[in-house]
Design goal:
heterodimer; A: 156 residues; alpha+beta; Immunoglobulin-like; four-stranded antiparallel beta sheet; 4 helices; 8 strands; 36% strand; elongated; B: 204 residues; alpha/beta; five-stranded mixed beta sheet; 27% helix
Chain lengths: 156, 204
């Protein structure tokens, strides 16, 4: 009886399987040549769902010769297992829709306004790694804050 | 008779409900992710995304930096609209202009543009040379305005595709920065926006 129930459940889930599995596989060189300047980050997370789906892997910064500060935040959608995929499909989170916004601060901690201080939508496929890039509006900017949030407006 | 009265009451009730279904006007955050998304138009969030990507690319390129310490003078030229929509491309160019000014790397000229001067005052003020109402020592002289070193131009292309009830618009926004002296392109980048929507089975 139990095996019949399991078989029935499996049959019910089978049609959804091809639609659910849409993850990204990656391959890269193991011995890296790059020498990035990694930033120690402090993170305040108020959204447990976002924290469980998008993992911030590293934050790198570099200063251009003209004094502008470049920041690159590497994040990965970690919802790539079978059950995670079923859940993401059910919630309309495949691909996962996020939005980000950079804020720039000068040496006194005052915010420096940019011409486009706005939330930028972005989609992240399960298993995929994205690099969110920003550049300071002028050389006076010394620090940054990256804000991330789910973007339910773009949800499937 | 009873049926007629009941029908009228039901109709009236339905009309009241129908009239009450609208949403009152409200303000939304222009920096947020809300707002309308339509397939055939470039919505405000699309402009913001295109401007952000263009600005990051332009500032990263380092082309605005001069070795002699003088600031580059940038002219905002024409962004050609090759879409079927009426688009005011100044939404894009004004944001890029602001970003360039805020960077401190270059200045922009408003005395000359692809469709004439953006600010006609620069030329008009020089016509005061013959006007005895003004102290001539304060009147701007001819030959003092600075000609631009570079010009920013662009093009927006739209391609529409329809398959059954699904329609799709592909917008290709291309921007270039040209050296005025040599005519050579110093920087160029493009932003692609694809939007898709499905018509309902019934209605509009």
């Amino acid at each position: 009886m139990r095996s019949m129930m399991l078989a029935f459940t499996a049959c019910c889930l089978l049609p959804f399987l091809p639609g659910c599995q849409s993850t990204v596989d990656t391959v890269e060189n193991r011995e890296k040549q790059m020498t990035p300047d990694q930033v120690d980050t402090s993170r305040v997370s108020t959204d447990a769902f976002l924290k469980g789906r998008l993992k911030i892997e590293r934050v790198d910064r570099s200063e251009q010769p003209d004094g502008l500060l470049r920041v690159q935040v590497t994040a990965r959608n970690v919802r790539s297992g079978f059950w995670s995929q079923v859940g993401s499909w059910f919630m309309g989170d495949n691909p996962y829709q996020i939005a980000y916004r950079f804020s720039w601060l000068d040496k006194d901690g005052m915010e420096v306004r940019t011409a486009t201080q706005t939330w930028i939508p972005m989609s992240v496929d399960p298993g995929d790694t994205v690099r969110i890039r920003g550049i300071s509006p002028n050389p006076r900017c010394k620090d940054f804050v990256l804000s991330l949030k789910e973007n339910p407006v773009e949800r499937n | 008779m009873k049926v007629t009265i009941a029908s009228c009451v039901a109709l009236l009730f339905g009309m009241v409900l129908f009239c009450g279904c609208g949403t009152p006007a409200r303000r939304i955050d222009p920096t947020g992710t809300g707002g309308l998304t339509t397939v055939d138009d470039i919505n405000f969030k699309d402009w913001q995304m295109a401007a952000e990507k263009g600005i990051v690319s332009l500032l990263e390129s380092g082309v605005l930096e001069r070795q002699d310490g003088r600031k580059m003078v940038l002219m905002i030229s024409d962004v050609e609209n090759r879409t079927t929509q009426h688009i005011d491309t100044r939404i894009l160019t004004d944001k890029i202009r602001q970003a360039v000014l805020r960077s401190g790397k270059a200045v922009t000229t408003t005395a000359v543009g692809a469709r004439g001067a953006e600010d006609k005052a620069t030329r008009q003020l020089r016509q005061l040379e013959d006007d005895d109402m003004f102290d001539q020592s304060t009147v701007q002289k001819a030959g003092t305005a600075i000609s631009p070193d570079m010009s920013l131009a662009g093009r927006i292309i739209q391609q529409r595709t329809t398959s059954g009830r699904t329609s799709e618009s592909y917008f290709f926004i291309h921007m270039t920065l040209t050296d005025s002296k040599t005519g050579l392109g110093l920087w160029g980048d493009s932003v692609e926006i694809v939007k898709q929507g499905q018509r309902p089975l019934m209605g509009f």
